Amino acid sequence: MHDNKHRPPTRVRDRHAFDAIIDARSPAEFALDHIPGAINCPVLDDDERRIVGTIYKQTGAFEARRVGGAMVAANLAKHLQGPLADKPIKWKPLVYCWRGGMRSGSMVQWFRLVGWDAQQLAGGYKSFRHHVLAQIEVLVPQLQLQVICGATGSAKTRVLQALAARGEQVLDLEELARHKGSLLGAWPGVPQPSQKHFETSIATQLETFDLSRPLYVEGESARIGRLSLPLSLVARMRAAPCIEVEASADARLAYLLRDYAYLGDDREALAELLGKLKELQGKETVQRWQQWAREGDLRQLFAELMSLHYDPHYGRSQAQHFEGWTQRRPVPTADLTAAGIEAVADAVRALPHRPAI
Description:
By secondary structure, the protein is an alpha/beta fold. It has two domains: 12-130, Oxidized Rhodanese, domain 1 (3-Layer(aba) Sandwich), CATH 3.40.250.10; 143-350, Rossmann fold (3-Layer(aba) Sandwich), CATH 3.40.50.300. It has helices spanning 27-32, 46-58, 61-81, 102-114, 124-139, 156-165, 173-177, 195-206, 231-238, 249-259, 267-274, 278-281, 283-295, 298-321, 338-350, and strands at 20-23, 39-40, 93-96, 119-120, 144-149, 169-171, 214-218, 223-224, 227-228, 242-247, 329-333. Strands 6-7-5-10-11 form a five-stranded parallel β-sheet, with helices on both faces. Helix 4 (102-114) links the parallel strand 3 and strand 4. Helix 13 (283-295) crosses helix 14 (298-321). The protein starts with 19 loop residues before the first strand and ends in a 7-residue tail after the last helix.
């Protein structure tokens, strides 16, 4: 047995000292958000948790613990016989539930009976959530952001990826949000994460950055799909110096036709999406666009979306959102093929680093 009586409580900052992080909550809670790297070994599944909650409300704590205890024991047996069957005696897991209560407590007790040096995370997931929000508030104001701007189709995300491949620090918010940020930006077949999980991903990345070096980020609006950027990050981006990828209209159209080719796979869904633009663009224009969508004529559709929808508002919205817009540094290009994007990334890297305004 391990002597845990005189140990200080295990905090979020101690989590890296363990061989594994076990999330004892239900699969639905885990899916919503969890500590990065944690594995889900629920002591109660979603249905069981609901049943125990109902018994607690209707009959009281003892009956809920009696019924729940049997379920917990059965689930622990499954985990011990399954994913944990090969763990050696020196294995040291950190276990957490919603707020460091009975679910993780019961698992830790069983693990210690087995002979493992298991610890319970003080405060559970709630303490981790506080840690995420605190990290964002503390680290964001220190970021040396360099904002990459450019009209729709300027391959900004690909430029970020090329910068990352060259060893530069990059925060790819669209990757974390699983969305390209525009009306047509949903990733095919990929749901966006929860707001909490999005924030967890941001905080996890921020912790890895060298705060003295530039950090490249795309000039996003305050929302990506249905997710909101942390307000402190929006404010920091607004005050950051801007670099504009000035790509020719032909290069942008060619890039969009490659990057959004999958929109032609479900023509009716695309036409339906375009219907949301009726108020902004008028019924007649949108009906023309919907016709092209149904015919699979993405070339004409994207060309008009650029010239009538995206481009007219672009300069004005950038000027509104970014304080450094008038001092932006242009990186012109007429080539957004793979080789062209590499050249843009090299040109961006060659610019002298500017501090925030």
